[in-house]
Structure formats: C-alpha cells, structure tokens
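Dig into my protein:

:::
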Amino acid sequence: MKRTFFIPFLSALIGGAVVVAVVAAFGGLNGSSKTVTTVQAAAPIAPSNASQKTTGLTPHDIYVRDAPGVAFVTSTIVQKSESSLNLFGGGETSKQGEATGSGIVIDANGTILTNYHVVENAIKVTVSFEKGKSVEAKVVGKDPSNDLAVLKISTDGLTLHPLTLGDSSTAQVGDPVLAIGNPFDLERTLTTGVISALQRQITAPNGFTIDNVLQTDAPINPGNSGGPLLNEAGEVIGINSQIETGGSGDDGSVGIGFAVPINTAKSEISELEKGGTVRGAYLGLTSLTIDGSLSALNLPVQQGALVQSVQKGTAAEKAGIRGGNISGNVEGGQVAVGGDIIVSIDGQAVASSEDLANDIAAKKPGDTVSIGLLRANGKGGYDKKTVSVTLGSRPNSVPNPNTPEG
C-alpha cells in the first residue's frame, strides 16, 4: 500500500531518546548508513517537446547560481506525551528533537519561504547557508492550509542570494526540472527530472486540500521539504513538500514527489510577511461530486456538488444551505440524500466538489458570493434558488477529512 509523506528530516533527539510518533509521521529516518552517488552533468538540460524552449544552462550552471539561495532550516521541536511512570495518571513528559528541512531566500532583506510542516510546533528555528554558521529565524507568517510559512532572519554579516520566482502555471508535463535541498542532512543536494503530472491534489498538514500541485520524478527525500523546484531557467516554480512511497517499509523517494505551486505562494507572500496565520475563505459544508456513480439517486443534473452536511455556525448554515437528511445507497456505499445541489458560484458552473472547493479557495474571508443551487421541493421535483453567502475563515483543521469540503 502506498503512502504519502511530508518530507522534513528529523535527526537524533537531544538526550538520545526516540520520538516514535513524530518519526513515523515522516518516514525514511531509520537508516544510519548512507550511500551517496555524485553525478556530473556536462550537457545542457534537453528542452521538452511541450515547452520547445531552452536557456542553454546546464544543471551545473543553475546549481552554482541558485544553491546559495537555498537555506538549511533547523527546527527545535518539543513533543509531549503521557508519562508511563506516573502511577496516578495525567502526567506528561516532554522530549526535544530537531527537524531539518530547506528554505528559499526570496529577497535580500532576510525573507525565507518554506513549508509550514518544517516549522510546525517549533520552539526555535535556525537557518544556515554554510556548515557551522547559523542565525536564528522568526516565523512571521504561516498558512497550514497550503503548507507555507515565511521566516525572517537578520542580514547582519550575511550576503543573501534571492532566487527568482517563476510562473508555475506555464509548467507542462515533460518540462525539465531540478530540486535543490538538504535531504538526509546532505546539504545543497541537486537532483534532476521532469514534470511528470499537473493538477495533482495533496493533503495539507491541517487536513485541507492543496490544489494545482506539481508532480515530479526528480528524487526528493526527507530534508527536501521547503526547498525549490526549479525550471530550466533556474526559476522557482514549486516548493517541494511531499513524496509518495511504496509502503514496503522504505519511506524514501520512489520517483513521485509533489511541490506546492509557486503561484499559490506568490498570491499570499505579502500577507504572510505581515505576520500571523493566513486563513483562506470557508463555506462550511461537505459535498460529493455528482457523476455516474450517483446515477441510482435519480438526481436532476448529471454534474454538480451534492451537499452532504453543513457545519453549525458557518457561512453555509447562515445562508440557509441544506445538507442531506436521508440515507441513500449507491455503488460505493451510503450517501446523504435530500440536500441542496450546488450548480454555480457567481454565475460560473460548478461541475464537481473540486470545482466548489477551488472556487471558494480563490476567494477571501468576508467576500460575498452568489451560489446557485437546486433544492428538493417535496413534490418529487427541484426548485432553482440563489443564495448570497458571506464567506468565513477556515478553521484550524478540516471538520471531516473524509469528505471534500468548501
């Protein structure tokens, strides 16, 4: 069974203890011996048929130029657990460890972009660009829903090398890419590959879905998290975040990695730099995509989002949107029937639950949207309705991670 992992590298715990729960969450941490293969590539990266363009830069050229802009990020993490030595119960013990990942220098003023999960629950974060030379970093902004965080460091005595942020929307399958990061504590490691798929979805640390994710076969491993995925011009088009594993006990790369698109980060960097936690817009319901698998329900449309449930106190409830109240049987099991069917947002058709989630994600908390829906009228038919909804802010975690939500 394959598994998807966030990919920071957790090193030995201070005091020599073992944090099983934390280590197991990320995988690939048990091997003590390392085999390192160095490959020199003298030829330019071949341009893909999709892009039909070349910059004439070799992987070595890009590495020499961009590697100084890739930071080594170390987070000191405290894990609390129930103490087995407390005979009366309720006692807690704390174990301290370190998680390491990568970061991207985005300006000369000390701003560094990384993954949220690299610095999640950290009590201290340091950044280094050379062995033995580290500076303390402050987490100034975070977005758990897109697995992004912005760090700030003092530039005293440092000469930073900001990387150029590209346009992830221009990436095409087959385009050559490079990853620079710190896998398994091996600083500034370069790997190469291609974009192997587009429009993937991965799960953020808080259970929400990250859309438009880039898939690559460039090997990325624990420690690459937060580092750049670069195009053949050396521009950042993604932030390496997760890997797929084979599930055979080896949690290293199997050639399927995922990067959060840089356009997602660019859309909110200015907000992250202002500090605090960025929370996306939130509707507050769960839904199912209407397709052939729901044909037994005899719904009035062949596409749309069938509302399953509505969370209390949310924008959806305040607007009067209704979830299902009857259990119906379909091929895949039971679904809630009788709820509203969302067919449009602001006049644009909604074909699936993913469409609904994407449309809401493109908005900001406080935005007002017009939602077109079909509602069962109790007479065997459906009435068209339009409701105005003022969107709220996403909660800390998704209420029900098993069902797509908006």
About this structure: The two ends are 29 Å apart (CA to CA). Residues 8-52, 85-89 have pLDDT under 50 and may be disordered. The chain has seven helices and 25 strands.
